[in-house]
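Project channel, design review

CF: Before we commit to the Ligilactobacillus hayakitensis DSM 18933 = JCM 14209 constructs, I'd like one complete example in the thread so the newer folks can see what an input/output pair looks like. Taking DNA replication and repair protein RecF.
RD: sounds good, go ahead.
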Amino acid sequence: MYLSELELKNFRNYQSETLKFSPQINVLIGQNAQGKTNLLESIYFLAMARSHRTTTDKEMINFQENIALIKGIVQKQIGQVKLEINLSNKGKKAKVNYLEQPKLSQYIGQLNVILFAPEDLALVKGAPAVRRRFIDMEYGQIDPVYLHALANYRVILRQRNKYLKDLQMKKISDRVYLDVLTEQLADFGAKIIFRRLEFLKQLEKFAQNLHAQITQGKEHLTFEYVSSLKNFENKSVDEMKKLFMQQFSQITNKEIFQGTTLLGPHRDDVRFLLNDKNVQVYGSQGQQRTTALSVKLAEIDVMKEHTGEYPILLLDDVLSELDGARQTHLLKTIQDKVQTFLTTPGLSDVARQLINEPKIFHIDTGKVTVEDE
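CF: and here is what came back for DNA replication and repair protein RecF:
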């Protein structure tokens, strides 16, 4: 798939722009604070119905206006798909081929994107929450069952934590409702972990190959899922649910004392191992960056395997964070494979030599001009 056209009205510092893109590599050149990342954000928002930079949708509406519009034409194997999101102070409305979608979960997945920004290099060395969010955001695009389980889990987790807090503060004493919430949480928690393991197995397969290419076979990359649930390995969903119920029963008093849920996928993590050593702990900065690069690029093939279509790749000023060898590997991997949007203050000599016929857009204070047009 690729995004052939994008229309913006009152989005961030863009008042009105209609842009046509190359199905290969599109380079967005401009100095800081001119709107390069805003343009990437609009594409991400068109795909995910949410921003990767803020949780407040109103921030994306031009401060002088009350509404904003993002429209795009996506070319897929099945044909052309027209997407539209309207933002206002009252919320957002998403449309597919002019039909409003009653639920955003029915909208997400029409356009698949992978965003790679400098902060994604923290995927390896960052906190566990960074890696959980990575799985939830990326896998949620391609597996509606996972997205549904995750949404339900989060609702029940909030309810259970509130009930535990009320028990802790002795506002209530009845534990019957806690048992109901615990069973529901165990059900969705088991489904989440099971599907995360499936996703990570696929991701590991492609990341291993990419990492071996970058390191010329000197390093072997493996993943390890670290769960608060004990003895979860090689278990079915039903078996995991039983384990959850058993282990919850052992810590109920402790959870009430602390007023929070101590078991579940919201506390889990992923370890990245190079030659069986934890790269988060023992890896150099170069090894950590190479691992992050391999993992992010592996997503391209995982999405292709799931959907039958390559996703769109958004690279937000990543080249400046990579040395020449990693730049070369990144650009060779994506060349002629996926539609790419790459932001940069200027193309390096390495990049110019490696990118075949890029379409170059110059951005200045929310205005876009196309090179050679």
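RD: helpful, thanks. The radius of gyration is 22 Å.
CF: The mean pLDDT is 91.
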